[in-house]
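User: Could you check the structure of this?
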Amino acid sequence: MRVLHIGKFFPPYPGGIERSSAALTASLATHATTDVAMLAHAAPGTHRSCTLQADGVQVTLAACHGQLLYAPVSPTFPLLLARSLRTFEPDLLHLHVPNTSAFWALLSPAARKLPWVVHWHSDIPLDSKHRLLRWAYRVYRPWEQALLRRAHAVIATSQQYLDASAALAPWREKVRVIPLGIGPGEPPVSPGTPSLWPGTGLRVLAVGRLSYYKGFDVLLHALADAPQAQLLLIGSGECESALRGLAKRLGIADRVRFAGHVDDAALAQAYAQAQVFCLTSIERAEAFGIVLLEAMRAGVPVIASDIPGSGVTHVVRDGETGLLVPPRDPLALAQALRRLDADVELRARLGQQGQQRWREEFTLDKNAQRTAQVYREVLHAS
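Assistant: Sure, the predicted structure tokens are below.
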């Protein structure tokens, strides 16, 4: 079978959705019965389209002149969609959302002739502080619901997220829950590699875009109440300047290293050396937390926000593979950090059990196999 994936962006553009969709297509491409192609956008500010090969997948990236409320501005996207449908001749479309460009499939006669699988990575965050985004959702919602109505199947990444999603509620009978997965990753670094942390003490790692909903300000406040902890914060974003200023005001700047964006080898080194991983997001915009899988794969115990209606609570089993703490609660987070600092055996147990849970539930192979089964069911019923 031939499957055309429609994405928003593609690595090296950063983001959990981008990484997970790229990994999924690469894994599917290894199946003898599946040919895979991807159509997405180039990074904002890229004014030329291009085609490349990535891990056995033909990837077409449409020129993207910028973003408007997170929506790519790409006049060439519908033209490239038409060309991809004509030249690749897919049997099925796999649409990754949220992504306004996926709506072009609704206006394409060639696309409407095919069965669709909609991969629901997250709702539009209506609890966002951006009022304009909430207003724009009034325009977005009819298209979103039309996409779901037309889909033959919908993939949600956790039962918890499905249960809390108002957008998916009318379509629950066509939803399949398939958790995200990751592959084996980069090989571990040698034991003698110098530490990436700014000093000695409990090595705490956090990874993600420096955006408000990631709750890194909460983590910094917790660090002020956990004096043994040293933080390595990997990622960049619009909140970086404010977070650096906060670290200085809290008197913890010497215990925090802002590493920015790093390559895969450096990221693997960070996970290999970390003693605790923290995900401190404060909203359901954190739909799953693929960085949690990366930490679990490395055998690193995790502390994560217990976000109602988020897949984070599916990934992390409190007291078994990590610790869950209330969102926006730096005191509870600091207490969890102090607990793991004092209890080496607990850290080891949580890390080992997290790694085992990754092997049993969250590998890339399992993710691809479950997705391919949905394809077969959809094509059989079409």
